Amino acid sequence: MTRAALLCLAVLVVRSSTASAQPLDLQLSVSPRTITFASANPDTSPTVTAAPISVTVRVKGPKTLQWHLSVLADGDLVAGPSTIPISNVTWAATQAPPFQNGTLSRTTAQTLAGGSGALNPGTTSTVTFSLVNSWLYDAGTYTQTLTFTLSSP
Amino acid sequence: MIAATPVAAQTQTTTATISANVGTLATLTLSSANVSFPDADPDAVPQVAALGGPLSITAKARATRLSQVLLTVQANGPLRSGLDTIAVSAITWTSTGAGFVAGTLSSTTDVLVGSWTGSGTRSGTQDLMFQNLWTYASGTYTATLTYTLSAP
């Protein structure tokens, strides 16, 4: 093969790589979007469980596609000047894998699910959050925002 | 030749609100619901210790931030044996444990047993003593004590 032919082949490969990007479709649904822990006696309820939520992921794309679903808290649970460490909140997820159990963090996004290849139709996990109950908590109504991120590099 | 098929990076985000209701709550545990003082010679035993030793007290409270948690006790009246009475002020106590204080029983006002700031679990003892006098009519005297733990 001549030098000119090799150069021509290289040009063709580059063109095909840039011109045929496969469509990627990521869909994420969280419902309901409120997670509430009721007040309870720490002696009788050392852990308080919220009503489960549904998290649905649908991924359309090539088989080599890597995808990742994470959850990150904006901070600790806050009620005025009082706080409860967000790390006192854990979750249990059905449909493992690709979903998995974990503990909330305010500094590092925690993996809720991940995998490779398409997930179509989507998969729905029932995710149940639990809070470690304690006599040390100040009385109050605590809130925080969780951000769920479904991404593909 | 194998060329990876390029896929445009994509991100989907959604948020949820997480909330926890932490209500005020108080539970009080005493090691015994009964306190008895045995008969004794006032000269030999001017202060009679309760049978069974000190009461162990566990006060658990969940209160609003920096609020005062109080444990008090009050008698329903004097010690009575038929028509005979002994003032409940004859009963005093010393305490152990952070926040627990010594005191003298009253049937007219709540007397402080312990105080703390904010939520938590507190444990201590209350060592009740009975002032023994020759002036008491013989008999078996009783009264009811009400302990109150408040967490605002």
Structural features, described:
- The complex is a heterodimer of chains A (153) and B (152).
- Chain A has one helix spanning 3-19; strands spanning 25-31, 34-37, 47-49, 53-60, 66-73, 77-79, 82-84, 89-93, 102-103, 110-116, 119-132, 140-152.
- Chain A has 153 residues and is mainly beta.
- In chain A, the strands form three sheets. In chain A, strands 1, 3, 4, 8, 9 and 11 form a six-stranded antiparallel beta sheet that branches.
- In chain A, β8 (89-93) and β9 (102-103) form a beta hairpin.
- The longest helix of chain A is centred in the N-terminal third of the chain and has 17 residues, at 3-19.
- In chain A, 29% of the residues are buried.
- Chain B has one domain (25-150): Immunoglobulin-like (Sandwich).
- Helices cover 0% and strands 51% of the residues of chain B.
- Chain B has no helices and twelve strands.
- In chain B, strands 2, 3, 4, 8, 9 and 11 form a six-stranded antiparallel beta sheet that branches. Chain B has a three-stranded antiparallel beta sheet with strand order 10-5-12, with no helix packed on it.
- Chain B is elongated and about 95 Å long.
- At the A-B interface, α1, β1, β2 and β12 of A face β1 and β4 of B.
- β2 (34-37) of chain A pairs parallel with β1 of chain B.
